[in-house]
Amino acid sequence: MPRKEQVNLSKFELEIMEILWKLGESSVREVQDAIQERKRPAYTTVQTIFARLEEKKAVRRTRKIGNAFLFESLITRSSVYRRIIDDFLALFGGSGQPVVARLLETGKLTLEDLKALEEKREAPGERAEAEEKRGRRR
Questions:
Q1: CA dist., res. 73 & res. 71, Å (int)
Q2: Where are the alpha helices (DSSP H) in 24-67?
Q3: CA–CA separation, 14 and 50 (whole Å)
Q4: Which residues, other chains included, contact 103 with Cβ-Cβ below 8 Å and sequence gap of 6+?
């Protein structure tokens, strides 16, 4: 059962968690094998990261098959991303404007993306009204 408590993860721990979220319940070996071959760390390195994630209560052992423990996530991807984004925005005094401006400047975020996000955020009744207003402006 995923926890709501926020956990600080290193870049490598986050990479391991991404694989675990994708695979679901997995062994250290399965996670290691899922890492790109050109940057694949040793089995014992991945095992150490799992031990750290256990200490942080981000994962737990679910069962043992032969000599291998299987692990599952105790934290959700969205809670981890929320924490990372909140920490990042704090560097800008909590304002997302410089970040959004840079994303627009580099083309990683388009005006169409912003419009789609705005539409998702609007309530169903407000959506029809907003679409009607946008249609009048064109």
A1: 7
A2: 28-34, 43-55
A3: 11
A4: 109
pTM, full prediction: 0.73
Placement of tokens 């169903």 in the chain: 124
Q: Find out whether 113 and 40 touch, Cβ atoms under 8 Å.
A: no
Over residues 21-40, the pLDDT tens digits come to 999 999 999 999 999 888 89
For residue 79, which amino acid is it? S
Q: How far from the centroid of its chain's Cα atoms is residue 4's Cα?
A: 14
Could you identify the residue written with the tokens 């388009």? 110
In angstroms, the CA 88 to CA 16 distance is 21
DSSP-derived 3-state class of residue 124: helix
Torsion of CA 44, 33, 72, 70, to 10 degrees: -70
Q: How confident is the model over 5-24, as pLDDT tens digits?
A: 578 899 999 999 999 999 99
Give the largest CA-CA distance in the chain: 67
Does the pLDDT of residue 136 top 60, yes or no?
Answer: no
